[in-house]
Every structure is written in C-alpha cells, then in structure tokens.
Amino acid sequence: MRAHPYAVDGLLALGAFLAILLSAAAAPHGHDVRPHFGERDVHPLTVVLAGLACSALVLRRRSPMPVLCVTGLVTVVGMITDPRVGEPSDGHRAPIVAAAIIALYTVSNRTDRVTSVRVGAVTVAVLTAAAMLLGGRPWYAQENLGILAWTGLAAAGGEAVRSRRAFVDAIRERAERAERTREEEARRRVAEERMRIARELHDVVAHHIALVNVQAGVASHVMDQRPDQAKEALAHVREASRHALHELQATVGLLRQSGESTAPTEPAPGLGVLDELVEGFTRAGMSVSVSVSAGRTPAGDEPVPPGGSGPVLPSAMDLTAYRVVQEALTNVQKHVGTGAHAEVRIVTSQRGLEVTVTDDGGGEAAGEAAEAGQGPEPKDAPQPQESGEGAEAAVAGGGHGLMGMRERAAALHGVCETGPLPDGGFRVHVRLPLQASGPGSDRQEPQAQEGATA
Question: pLDDT per residue over 387-433, tens digit each?
Fold first, then answer.
C-alpha cells in the first residue's frame, strides 16, 4: 500500500463509486424496515456526478484540500439537482456525499489540528445546510441527518488518527534521541578515561624513568673508583624499574577485557605512601623536606586527614595530591638535578586540601647551566595560572606534566598555580576544595577516577 499509493486510491475510488450507485438504486426502507435494491432507476446525471466525485479521490494524497473542494462542490450540485420526493424521476443523489466524506477524512488526517477543526466545521455546515435547504427532501429527513453525522465522524476520525500518528512519532523520536545521547555519553566517557589513563602513564613513566636515569648516571660515573656505590645505585635502578613496571601493570590492566588476567586489587597510591615516594627521591640525591599540617594521611582504604580529625579525604582528592607531589618532585629531579632541595607542604582543613611544592633551583643541572651562561631548563613550559592559553602553550612547548596537574585539579574543581620564584627555584601550588567532591564521593567515584581498586 505504501509502495503504490495511487493504485490503492484508485481502488478506493472505484469502491466508493460502486457504493454510491448501489445506494442510489436502493430504497432506504420499506414496510419491513429493510432496504430493497433495484426498486429505483439510477439517473444518468447521478452516474456522471458520482464518477466526477470519485475520480478526484485518486489525487487525495497529493492535493487533499482541492479534492475536498471538488467533491464538496459535486455533492452540492447533486443535492440541488435532486428531484423532489414523489416525482417520477426521483434519483436520490444524497449518497454522492460519500466521496466528500473520504476527502474530508484525508484533510483532517494530513493537516494540523487548527486547519482540521476549521475545515471540518465548514464542510459539515455547508453540506448539511445544502442537504436541508436545497435538497429534494424535507430538512428533517434521515438522509440529511446522516450527512451531518457522517461528515462530523469523518472529521473527528481523521483528527484522531493524525494525533495518534504524531504521538507515536514523538515517542519514536524521543527514543532515538535518547539512544544518540547514550552513545554520545559513552563516547565522552571513553575519551575521558583515555585522558585519565594517559595522565597516569605519564606520571608513572616520567617519575620512575627520571630516577632510573639519575641512578644509572651515578653508577656509570663511580663504576671504576667506587664499585660499592655503583652497586648501590644499580640496586636503586632495579627497585625503581620494578615499581615502574608494577604501576604500569596496574594502570594498563584496567584496559583488559573480561576473561583476561585480572587487574591488581590493591588500592591506588595516595598520601599514605608519601614517605616511600620521598625516600625514592632522597636516594637519588635530592634533599626533600615534608611539612604536613597535623600529620600525614595514614595508609589504608579510606584516606584520613592529618591527625585523624576533620573531613575524610575522597580517594580522588588523595590520588590527585599524591600525583601532584610526584610530578613536581620529578620535575625538580629532571630539570634541577641532584643536590637540589625541595620542600613539600600539605595543609588540610574543613574547606579542602592545599599542596605546595617548592625548590631552590640549586641542583647540579642548574649549576652547569649557570657555568655555561644559560638559565636552567624550563620545567614543562610553566604557566603562572590556569587558562586555555596556558594549556596551549604547554602543549606547544612539549611538556605535559604541568598540564596534567592542571587537568587533575580542574577535574576536582580546584586550582593549580605554577611559576618561578623571585629568588630562583620553582613553585607548584594546588588547591582542592573538599565540598566539590560531595559527600560519599569516596565510595562512589574511586572506580571512575582511579579504577585500580577491586
């Protein structure tokens, strides 16, 4: 029916034509209250008018309003020319209104509600008035009342079908929109997860490779004169590489699919293992001092603020603080060198967490650059404040450590400020508001933020 609409409308027009002729040839009722067929002759003008009205129905889908006008006009003409009741040539042309009823249904079905109501009201009024005032039967005849009922029913039926179709289309559109939204949300979450894993890999690799590089250089330098110290440096290299492999396995293990080897079940690093992180840099020749407001966060499944009092730190904030300290000390080791002094200051309060890492810029790398008449190498193209231009500059400069710290802070609605100090050295300051994570975030977001817990 959808592939051949004109053929369907042609069959509909033919059926309406035959029904009109059959009705014109039948007496509406007899003494036994039944219709009697073949008791009246069909006038040739009735055949012509029925043929014109039904032929227009073939185009009802393409031009519903003109077809309604044509069928309505033919119906009115048939009523005007219908002989009076009792005359020998009584033709009974009221059934011609069937074509106008079909056209009115099509208009109501294919137009908006306002147009449907207006056109339906006008059509019902015109056809009913023409039948009552201009027809060959009394105004109260059942044929006239039938015209009123059937035209009104056609207008109401077409409007009901149109409303139902619009309702179904709206439901289908909402379902498709919801499906598209779910797909877009899934793609967005995948992109965010990729960015998070990329930051994790950068932090892990940059930190441990920097330590391995320093210790390997020390071992190469003292291999001949002080073999004991060289062996100690190589032991540090082995330990740092082992930690790097372990953390890489923990991070990349999140990408494994079901059925493969399971990912590690131990919790992500946090401020509870800050001593181990500082010890690694101390072995590499740096001087690191740590200052915590009321005692460091102990290791465990739930980070606790210094001193064990105050708000519980969400795991995402605990991990971010650890990664900021790790990346800042790695930059000091990489760009300033051994012999540098770094200070880590962690302050917790009811409002949030503040992490500050500063260095004096007095390492071996800085001394060699000063002897060569150059300044120390910039640390990941530092930018003094968080902004879109700063992130673009960081990318253009090739450094991603500071940009990663800014992204981590921004993910928790915090602020990351970096820049050189007036007397030399560098400063990294991160503020993380506690209320941004919301209550219960420690139980709701560990999987989304770190994903390394069971």
Answer: 333 333 333 333 567 888 888 888 888 999 998 988 888 999 999 98
C-alpha–C-alpha distance, residues 112 and 107, integer Å: 9
Does 120 score more than 80 pLDDT? yes
Measuring CA to CA, how many Å separate 347 from each of 152, 321, 360, 442?
79, 11, 21, 19
- Output phi, psi for 256, to 5 deg: -70, 145
Judge whether 452 and 268 are in contact, CB under 8 Å. Answer: yes
Q: Give per-residue pLDDT as tens, 218-245.
A: 777 777 777 777 777 777 777 777 777 7
> How far apart, in whole angstroms, are the C-alpha atoms of residue 427 and residue 408?
17
Task: Give Cα separations from 426 to 183, 356, 359, 361, 412 (angstroms).
Answer: 44, 11, 6, 7, 24
The per-residue b/e assignment along 370-406, b for 16 or more CB within 10 angstroms, e otherwise, is eeeeeebeebbbbbeebeeebbebbeeeebbbbbbbb
Look up tokens 């790695």; give the residue. Answer: 330
pTM of the model: 0.43
Taking Cα atoms as reference points, which of 247, 213, 208, 206 lies closest to residue 233?
Answer: 213
User: Per-residue pLDDT tens for 245-278?
Assistant: 777 766 666 665 545 445 455 566 788 888 888 8
7: left (phi over 0), alpha (psi -120 to 50) or beta: alpha
CB 430 within 8 A of CB 415: yes
39 phi, psi to nearest 5 deg: -90, -10
